Sequence to fold (197 residues):
Amino acid sequence: MQKPFQKDLSHSTWEEVYARQVQRADLVPAWIEALGLKAGDRVLDVGSGPGYVSLALADRVGPDGLVYAVDRSREALAHLERLQKERNISQIQRIAADVGTLNSGDLHADSALVAMVLHHADDPAGVLGNVHRLLAPCARAVVAEFHPQGPCEQGAPREFRLAPEQVRAWYEAAGFAVLEYRRQSPEHYMFVVERAA
Fold:
């Protein structure tokens, strides 16, 4: 019997979460293209979890680039670390932290991906506000979520899904401007946003 959905993902193992990330693999190329990622770039992967998307980002930015994989779960990042070692990928820096309160420190990201994570956050507006603070002026971010009007055959249950209008209000309040909105599938939508100059 499947355990009920929990925002903190305590109902799942990290192997199960990774498998769900793999199921969304067809969404990832559009995120990468929207961010304009190229070799040598530095990208912030917010709420990376066990790291399927971080690995795809690392492939795009190459050995001269850097992926900051930020997640509050050390266990999720340990899963990613194992995969990095198996694949000999060094251009991912794992950071165990709550992105809503993360200090920039030595983090210098050119762009950010906030994909399928806001519905897990206790303070989604705070997450977007801090991502804005961590990025340079005119940097791009992709914000992707599950659509509340989707069929709910995969992903978060309907009551945990965030309406695009609500997400737009949060990132505009944080100081981002919308460049594009797209419904990627019946279940998923994405925004491409830019930090104000």
